[in-house]
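I am writing to request your help with a piece of structural work I have in hand. The matter concerns a single protein, recorded as an amino acid sequence and a row of backbone structure tokens. Could you please explain, in whatever detail you think fit, how the structure tokens follow from the sequence? Thank you for your consideration; the sequence and its tokens are set out here:
>
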Amino acid sequence: MRKTAVGYAIGKLMQIMGLVLLVPLGIAIWDAGDIGLSAMLAVPEIIGFIGAIIFALICGTVMAQLFREGRDLQGIKEGYAIVTFGWITLAFIASIPFCLYFMASRPEGLNGIVLAFSDGFFEVMSGFTTTGASILIDVEAVPRSLLFLRALTHWLGGMGIITLALVIFPAMGVVGYQMFRGEVPGPTTEKLYPRLAQTASILWGVYLLLTAVESGLLLLGGMNLFDAICHSFATMATGGFSTKNASVAAYDSDFIQWVIIIFMYFAGINFVLHFRALRGDFTTMFSNREFRFYTGIIVAAIVIITAVLYINGLAPIEAASQHYRSAPMEPAQFAEHYANQQQNVHGLYKSFKTASFQALAIITTTGFATADFDLWPDFLRILMIFLMFFGGCAGSTGGGMKIIRVMIAGKVGLKELRKLAQPRLVAPIKVGNQVIDDSRVVNVISFVLIFVGLFVVTAMLMTLFVPDLMTAVACSIATIGNIGPGLAGVGAMESYAWIPIPGKWILIMSMLLGRLEIFTVLIALRPAVWRK
């Protein structure tokens, strides 16, 4: 392991992050208005942004200069270390403004500092990993600069600030492709061009184009520019942070909901297929087995959810009222909330719209909400948990296990079933016309087993910190799958603020493992990897 290579790359990433934070700092200064320099410097988030920028630029420059001599000798292990520790470092820097903002409203003393730091790091890690799990109870009371920072961490984390770095400083040598593999979601990473920086540029170009188009459509739908940009960032990154307490439901606009539905669907598709479609090659997209399976799952989920909601409606109010909530409602308040949610599934169109939005939000791991799906019948609640395991296509911004892995694991199971009846059967695992070699099959099966194992372990650990089993299970898959909202105490209308500090740090690790696809983090954290 060449530690100098890791230090140099992380130093460069810190410099980039310092420059990126100038944008939300500008928003904070603009919103502060003409209050004078001394009063402006007393605003917690402004001090936080200034401190984070100075820290990032100074430390990044020192590290880049200190380790400059060893930057070219890099390999596979260095790539995974750069991605893992780079992600943690960037989350720490971006959490500084949140920490100072939270400290201004939290109890003084060590406990207040620890809570503010934990909440700030949780919120930013949730942003960078595009999870969308939030500790904010009143989102609309938070300054716009911090709301924009949340959205910006989504957008950078979606396509990956590591791939952005490959565009800005492509002289990283051999490790460039390993960083690309470690950061871009999915078991395969297709290069469009021989030069990695060129591939990264193309993917970021497509990402930017789709974000701009969605922002324009949301503006037409009645959103203001700030909200349109923030929601577009969250949609294309499959993140789910909203600027409203009621998420997308706050706008009460069918047009806005359908725009976001369409772009959530786009965000779950391999961005290589988007690039080829933009060049007129639609055949590749429609013949791609993973794309077809992804679309089929979405259609099936929408049909099932629509049918159940249209026929059965919500769960009986007596049963729904028993679902765990971190802050239980008064009976009258709950009855009013239940009646409002009942209107979301009144009639076939509303059932279809609600089903379409929530199915896409869960399968693509975006996590937006227009309905409290914790009030749905238990059959649909379990279905939502099941859908959280799928995720988007490889090479998309979606989380979860990824559609291609689900396909390969399913084909392995079917092959073994056939071999029991035909012991001499020789049938290679194929996706479309492509034969999946044994090493890749082993990689996929190993990933699925570790993913499920980590889900179980995280759920067991969370039972030590939350008083409800469904909440423990839901927050486990919602974080490792990078979805955000779950069920019960972490449902669509709840937040993660009430979870004790140790539980939040378990979920932070779960979010990081899920976003960097487990192997990247586990390899980087192995002591043997760091030995010469």
Q: What stands out?
A: Residues 168-180 have pLDDT under 50 and may be disordered. Residues 282-530 form one domain. The radius of gyration is 23 Å. DSSP finds 24 helices and two strands in the chain.
